[in-house]
Amino acid sequence: MLIPALKISVEKLSSSYYRALFKLLEPPRIEPKPLQFINIWIPGLDEAPMSISDYNAEDYTLSIIFKVVGDGTRGLRDRNGFFGVKGFLGNGIDTSGYDRVLFVAGGSGIAPLPFLSRKCVESGCIVDVVWGVRRGDMLFNIGKHAVGLGEVYYTTEDCTIGYCGNASSLVREIVERSGFKWSLVIGVGPSQMLREVCYASRGLQDSYVSLETMVKCGLGACGSCLLKPLPKLLCLDGPVFKCSEVYHILG
Ligand SMILES: Cc1cc2nc3c(=O)[nH]c(=O)nc-3n(C[C@H](O)[C@H](O)[C@H](O)COP(=O)(O)OP(=O)(O)OC[C@H]3O[C@@H](n4cnc5c(N)ncnc54)[C@H](O)[C@@H]3O)c2cc1C
Ligand code: FES
């Protein structure tokens, strides 16, 4: 389950985000799906849950996009050599059968987009993106890392780039202006944003949100990711849930 991985590179994408590329040194038993995550073991430190940002099944390279918040993520940025990848964890999303997808991200919620859009291209859909951050200097050009995107909107709360406001108010405006044209909606970010994404896509069967909570073992054994009051574990039952399942615990 713990696959040894060699860090190939780390790249600074903006004032806040980094992208690290790893080569898995053993073939994983199954291929991941978009929105699944890994627990990455940083030698001498801890494990950190990270969304799979991109994955290449031919050479077993895997990338993550992350923000440095503490020792673990600092280790991901600064250390070189060998790491460990536990995964692939949780449930992902199968994009087949959808034609147009709306992906709404807040902050580091943008991380799973490259793998999602790659799978979407393979299954014949395109992804429109709304990405909101607090400050303009946190943004980077997501089109450089993700293929097959449709419309891409950036929103900043300091109003320096793109739409002035947050991702959910822009989604509301887009829906009011041009109607609802997506067969699948996915939100990844803060709980309040997820609630508004679910509200904007009410009536749509396939609207999903990816939740975040403390994840430790990633295997359903420790109980630290229990989504109270639901009898669900994020690491086994999530991180992706239908809006209808979790709407009442969001926000
Ligand atoms: C399923 C899942 C996928 C994730 N994907 C990404 C990703 O793609 N990119 C990314 O940048 N981050 C992601 N995160 C969050 C990331 O795991 C945490 O930021 C990281 O573990 C912090 O580790 P640290 O040792 O650097 O900080 P710590 O020293 O452990 O913590 C620093 C601060 O971050 C908070 N924190 C720690 N872990 C979490 C957590 N799991 N959720 C929320 N707050 C936390 C702590 O409360 C503390 O305030 C994901 C989390 C989950 C559960
Ligand atoms: S992280 Fe241990 S049960 Fe989910």
Summarize the main sheet.
Answer: 7 strands, antiparallel
Q: In CATH terms, what is the fold-level topology of the largest domain?
A: Rossmann fold
**Radius of gyration of CA atoms, rounded to a whole number:** 17 Å
Spell out the helices and strands N to C.
Answer: EEEEEEHEEHEEEHEHEHEH
Describe the structure.
- The structure is a single chain.
- The chain is an alpha/beta fold.
- It has 6 helices and 14 strands.
- The longest helix has 12 residues, at about 165-180.
- The protein is globular, with a radius of gyration of 17 Å.
- It binds flavin-adenine dinucleotide and FE2/S2 (inorganic) cluster (FES).
- The site of FE2/S2 (inorganic) cluster has 12 residues, from loops.
- FE2/S2 (inorganic) cluster (FES) binds next to loops.
Give a quick precis of the structure.
The protein is of the alpha/beta class and 251 residues long. It is 20% helix and 33% strand.
